[in-house]
Amino acid sequence: MDRDNGPRVRVPEQRAPEKPGMADALRFTVLGPVRAWRGSELLSSGSPQQRALLAALLLREGRTATASELIDAFWGEDPPSQALATIRTYASRLRKILGQDTLVSESGGYAIRTDRAALDLTLAQDLAGEAEKARAAGDRCQARTLINKVLGLWDGEALASVPGPYADNQRTRLEEWRLQLTEARLDLDLEVGCHAEAVSELTALTAAHPLRERLRELLMVALYRSGRQAEALAVYADTRRLLAEELGVDPRPELAQLQQRILRADEELARPADEPAPAPAPLRPAQLPATVPDFTGRSAFVAELGGRLATAEGSVMAVSAVAGIGGVGKTTLAVHVAHQARRHFPDGQLYVDLQGAGARAAEPETVLGSFLRALGTADSAIPDTLDERAALYRSTLDGRRILILLDNAHDAAQVRPLLPGTAGCAALVTSRVRMVDLAGAHLVDLDVMSPEEALQLFTRIVGDERVGAEREAALDVVAACGFLPLAIRIAASRLAARRTWTVSVLAAKLADERRRLDELQAGDLAVKATFELGYGQLEPAQARAFRLLGLADGPDISLAAAAALLNLDPHAAEDLLEALVDTSLVESAAPGRYRYHDLVRLYARACAERDEEPVERESALSRLLDFYLATAAGVYALERPGDRLADHREPTQYSGLTFADRHSAQDWLYTEANSLLACVRQSSGSGAVRRAVDLLWATKDLAESGANSKQYEAAAITMRDLARSSDDARAEGRALITLTNARLVAGRFDQAERDAQRAMRLARAVDDPLPSCWAPNDLGIIALYQNRHAEGEAYLEQAIANFRADGNRPGEASALCNLSRIHLAMGNTTSAVALAQQGIDIYDELGHALRGANGRYALGLALTQSGRFADATEQLHDALAVFRDSRQRLWEGMATFRLAEVDLAAGLPAQAATKSEQALAILRGIGGEWRRGNVLTVLGRALSEIGQPGRAQVCWREALEIYETLGSAEIETVRKLLVPTLPG
Questions:
Q1: Which pLDDT tens digit goes with each residue over 42-101?
Q2: How far apart are CA 944 and CA 948, in angstroms?
Q3: 3 state SS for 912-939
Q4: What pLDDT is stored for residue 769 in this prediction?
Q5: 974 near 935, Cβ under 8 Å?
Q6: Which 3 state secondary structure label does DSSP give 589?
Q7: Nearest to residue 5, comparing CAs of 211, 247, 275?
Q8: Does an H or E element contain 365, and which?
Q9: Which residues make Cβ contacts (< 8 Å) with residue 116, sequence separation at least 6?
Q10: What is the spatial order of strands in the sheet that 41-43 belongs to?
Q11: Could you tell me if residue 927 is left (phi over 0), alpha (psi between -120 and 50 degrees) or otherwise beta?
Q12: How far is residue 646's CA from residue 634's CA, in Å, rounded to a whole number?
């Protein structure tokens, strides 16, 4: 193969469009099989030689081809004696198909007259030209879109099966153009930060075109930006060796320079190109909440903070921290100042409520993920750790002028990772605490309003006429509010909404000191007194709803869950909740979902502790737990028909929701995930622990989803500890099984084994069938992963017997499929296939979609080892589709990995490398290091077989480090792969 000379995209010659003629309905393709359509009808284009004539005329783009040119195109230097007659015959046949006005004879030759847009090639040329213009103008996103459209016009090999030397030459030209377009699009991918996604495609392309240096260069950049520096350098080493062996030359200078930049850890290379581009909407965030139209006073603070923010245009990075008690107006002031300062920050404004006053403040890494997405970073490019996200965030802000408003911060430690690192940007922080330990911050202590400002705010909301008539009463109102802006706003808003009230009526209601004693204290108690104003005006049913709903720990609550907690029908509950929304004590997060401001939630709980009997508080949370358990158990039953959880779980007094199909059930499960796990964690009351553990069991799918795995494991640990401390062996045994499941997902097999062993002992002691069945099943899986096959076989045979004794057919199917994998590991492929098929038959009979996919996964492994690669691929593809549909990211990644193993065994290493890269991307952050080591091992094998041994060695070394850290049995296998490079 020839070496390429760089990334230039050479577009074939373009001509001006012809005027549309009579053949507007005709369409032609040459970027694939040569075909013609009239409307939606595919026309017969005749023999290969006749298609060759059609192709030769189409490729002339309306120009006339003489008879001698066509003969030369067909037969080259050795035409037959009847060549001219043959050409005329083919032309006559084509004219009958296409029409007299389309295929015309002139000047002793032929031409096809048709609209330019009727041919896929000319359409591709025009789109490619537009892409070049877009890129030159800096619009890289549009250029990528256009090039993808061009590449999408190809349907396999251009001029497929068309004979003749002319077709051969054109086929080569078009394939080269296709590769250049692909390189241009991949170059754009890297410029916009999609390097992680590009790795798998570039791996496949370098395998298909091993001597094409531009592809190798792009792969090195993509790997380097993905944090895989060693692999990037290995690509260079592989390229240099290959070029020397095949062509006797060194890599071109650009490739060698790239290697040096990677060795130097060039920071400029680590981020996309700096060329100007029109920023898409997400790259210029405008997240500031709306400022209040009646903002009042605070002029000195507005001037002070505004002046500080304006300095960010100069040589310093401005950080201002506003502190004060709850309800003093920190957020209102900060938002107002931020809006006034927007002109100083043309590149956007970011905002987040850090929930610092609540029990669970926002995690900095979560906030950074949200900010990076708002700044245009792809999900796949966002790192996992806090330090990496903070570094990428600062890099993304570098050179921009962006204002960051960090509202309601808990402390300086929460804020530090969220601060920009360069001049031009500014951060404005609000918090209940003075951030004296936030280095370099300009601190502002915000006190209550002056009487004049307080009265002005009250007047703006209520109206001049009503306040002017009762000025003394109005002064009494704002004094009773302690001049706190939030308290004044609540009182004034209620008065404005009640036209029959006078200001004196409101003042009289506020005169009772029992409703405002706490208002004179500092901190949260002052906020509590402020909220007392609104709470005291609620009807009894509204007040009860306000108190009890505040007991639930979740970030928000659905209407159905609220109805259960309140023991009301949904319509009555909705009326109460909407009334609370009108009072601003509750927010409507979305249709049918409600939430508290964190301070209001604390106040609501204080009201519940003061005004509700303990038994009523426990009953409310018990009803909520019942609702979640009954609904989750229904979802579990839809996913696992015939499973015995429904027979063995704790009974519930409150019914749950029902769903028409598994997809709507899954939507509910994942929407409610945070609320479900929060309910589990707070269920420590008498009689609640067992139901909470069963709720964890019913939501096992959350552990395997990836999005909720860590929260699920934390909840399982909480319930294990609660059950153990209350000496409830049954609850502890079940909690340990849920914890085993979470640790299996995370790849922590030693911990999982200890949990499963204890669960099995406890289950025997209390004769609990659920862990009695599932503990040996899980122990069998752990033994499989740790290569203890005989032990695993014994565990799984025990599990099968226990499942059968309990009448749990889905559990039996699961154990059969796991036993299939044990037999496979022991070399018994025939029995492995049979066992997996037995499991699938049970799943299919019961209508198990997701668990049936697990069975097909096991069967795919057995078929692979049996050498039945096509059958294995079919089974694994079927499983993969279900895993994706069910949002099971762990198993989606593992099925992709197993398909890579099939490709490798079938002699398709390039495809295996691509799928291995895809598996690594999917399993990022889930599955644990052991599974990552397995994928890296297979990726290394595939890379070695496609002529990239250096990069393969990097993968194997990383896998070896993982296995050595874990003490895994795979150490020796990988050591053998590395024998040529290991010392000694």
A1: 888 888 888 888 888 888 888 888 888 888 888 888 888 888 888 888 888 988 888 888
A2: 5
A3: HHHHHHHHHHHCCCCCHHHHHHHHHHHH
A4: 94
A5: no
A6: strand
A7: 211
A8: helix 364-374
A9: 17, 18, 61, 122, 123, 126
A10: 26-29, 35-38, 41-43
A11: left
A12: 8
- Measure the CA–CA gap between 952 and 133, rounded to whole angstroms: 39
Alpha-carbon distance 895 to 915, whole Å? 10
Residue whose tokens read 């099968």: 800
And the tokens for 833? Answer: 């296939």
- Using CB atoms within 10 Å of the CB of residue 504, give its burial: 0 to 12 exposed, 13 to 18 middle, 19+ buried: middle
Distance CA(871)–CA(71), nearest Å, equals 48
The tokens of 432 are what? 């209940």
Query: In this structure, what token pair is assigned to residue 289?
Result: 């909440």
Q: Which residue has the tokens 């004539």?
A: 53
**Closest CA relative to residue 909, chosen from 950, 864, 945, 865:** 945
Neighbours of 343 (CB within 10 A): 9
Residue 130 near residue 146 (C-beta atoms within 8 A): yes
Residue 332 and residue 461 in contact, taking contact as beta carbons nearer than 8 Å: no
- Give the separation between CA 605 and CA 42, rounded to whole angstroms: 71
pTM of the model as a whole = 0.61
Q: How far is Cα of residue 136 from the mean position of the Cα atoms in its chain?
A: 32
Contact 872, 864 (CB under 8 A): yes
- For residue 485, the Cα-to-chain-centroid distance in whole angstroms is 40
Nearest Cα residue to 595 out of 561, 550, 565, 560: 550
User: By three-state DSSP, how is residue 503 classified?
Assistant: helix
Pairing verdict, β 349-353 and 109-112:
unpaired
Question: Which two three-digit tokens encode residue 836?
Answer: 């997996």
Confidence of residue 612 (pLDDT cuts 50, 70, 90): very high
Q: Are 846 and 810 in contact (CB under 8 A)?
A: yes
953, 981 Cβ separation under 8 angstroms: yes
Q: Where are the beta strands (DSSP E) in 324-381?
A: 349-353
State the Cα–Cα distance between residues 312 and 426, nearest whole angstrom. 6
The whole-number pLDDT of residue 746 equals 82
First to last CA, the chain: 39
Give the pLDDT confidence score for residue 92 in this predicted structure. 87
C-alpha span between 207 and 203 (Å, rounded): 6
Return the closest-CA partner of residue 819 out of 804, 807, 834.
834
